[in-house]
Design goal:
By secondary structure, this protein is mainly α. The chain has one domain. The protein is built from 2 helices and no strands. The N and C termini lie far apart (75 Å).
């Protein structure tokens, strides 16, 4: 696993353990605690959904950028090949002109 995955896993497990300990020592009634947990859980789910949506949008834009980059590279490669062919043709015609002049 990468360091960022390990860090995220550690952060989430630490938050979970902290939450369980906080629930065990909570001075509030169980129904109030459940309401608070329900509210926070729905908030976290909404935030997570928003984050997932953002990441998928970024992935789509990255895919589009890669596709456009590939097209630019292919176009540049084709132009370079065309320039090389033109240069070879020009050198060939120069050599032919030299031969015609020396004859």
């Amino acid at each position: 696993m990468s360091k960022s995955k390990n860090f995220t896993l550690g952060l989430l497990s630490g938050a979970l353990v902290g939450s369980v300990i906080a629930l065990l020592y909570a001075p509030d009634k169980g129904s109030n605690t459940r309401d608070i947990i329900s509210y926070r859980l729905s908030t976290y789910i909404d935030e997570l959904s928003h984050l997932i949506e953002q990441l998928s949008d970024e992935k789509a834009s990255m895919s589009e950028a890669k596709r456009k980059g590939d097209l630019v590279v292919e176009d540049a490669r084709k132009r370079a090949e065309d320039l090389i062919n033109e240069a070879e043709d020009l050198l060939g015609s120069i050599e032919k002109a030299k031969e015609d002049v020396t004859e």
